[in-house]
Target: Bifunctional diguanylate cyclase/phosphodiesterase
Amino acid sequence: ESKCKGRGRATLFEEDMLRDLRQTRMVERDLRAAILLGELELAYQPLSSADGGIVACEALVRWRHSLRGVIPPSEFIPVAERTTLIDQLGEFVLRRACCDMKEFPGLSFGVNFSANQFKRDGVVSMVEAILAETGTDPRRLAIEITESMAMSDGEDVRKRLEALRSLGVKISLDDFGAGFSGFAYLQSFPVDSIKIDRSFVAKLGTSSVSSVLVSALVNVAHAVGVNVVAEGVETEEQHRLAVAAGADLFQGFHLARPMSLAALRDHVARQEAGGLPRSGAASAPR
Ligand code: C2E
Ligand code: MG
Ligand code: MG
Ligand code: MG
Model:
C-alpha cells in the first residue's frame, strides 16, 4: 500500500506538516502586519471579591482582522510563540494595558506573558521601561504566567521573576493545577497568587470531591501566603461553592465577560453608582 506510493510524493504525514507550516507562515505574515496596522486590541475581564466588587481586570488580547473578524488568542498566540513576534506582541499588550490602567486607579491589572518572553534576558528591563514610560505603579500590575514556564531554564526564569517582584510587580500563576507540577512550582517560584484552572471550577457542584479539592488547594496556597483566584466561574452555584472553598477572587462569564475598554468604563461606573447586579453578565462576548 504505502510502499506503492513511490518516491517524490509527500506522505500524508508530510502533507500535514507542510500544510501546518504554510498555515503558520501565513498567520505569522498577517500577524506581523496586524501589529503594525494596529489590528490588535485588548479586552478586559473583571475579577471580583466575594461580595461582588471589582478589584482587578485581566487583559486579553484580540485580533480584529480586516477580513476574518475577531480572532481569539488561541489561534495566533501559539504562532507568535514559535517566532519572535511574541516579544512585539507582549510589549504591545503591556504598554496598552498600562496606558488603560490610568483610568481605573482602584484596580490592578493582570497581563499574560508567554514562557518564551521569559526566556529573553531583556524581559525585566522591558517591563521596567514600560512601567516608567507610562508612569504605572508596579504594584498594580500582575504578570500571569503558566507553570509550563518552569519546564526549561528554571533558574533563569526564577531570577527574572524575583527581579520583577523586587520592582513591586505581582506574579500570578495561571491555570494552576492544569499541569503536573503545580505544587512543585509553588515551592521554587516566587508567586503572589494562583489562578485555579477552570477545569476544577467547572466540576464544582458535580461531586463533593471537587469542593474538597478546591478547598485543599486554597488552604495550601493560603498557608504559604499566596492568594487564590477561581477562574472560569460560569454559574451561580460554582460561584457560591468557590466562595465557600475560600477563594479570594472570582473571574468568569457568570460575573462578567471580557469586554472593550469602553464597556469596562460603563461597568465600573455602574458598580460605583451601586447599580451593578451582583452577577450575571449582560455584556456581549468578545
Ligand atoms: P487565560 O489567561 O487563562 O485567560 C482566561 C481565558 O478564559 C480567556 O480566554 C477568557 O475569555 C476565558 N474565560 C473567562 N471566563 C470564562 C468562563 O467563565 N468560562 C470559559 N469557558 N472561559 C472563560 P481567551 O481570551 O480566549 O484567552 C485564552 C488564552 O490566551 C488565555 O488564557 C491566555 O493564556 C492567552 N492569552 C490571552 N491574551 C494574551 C496575551 O496578551 N498574551 C499572551 N501571551 N497570552 C494571552
Ligand atoms: Mg491569564
Ligand atoms: Mg487562566
Ligand atoms: Mg488558559
Confidence is low (pLDDT under 50) at residues 279-286. The first strand starts at residue 40 and ends at 49. The longest helix spans residues 12-37.
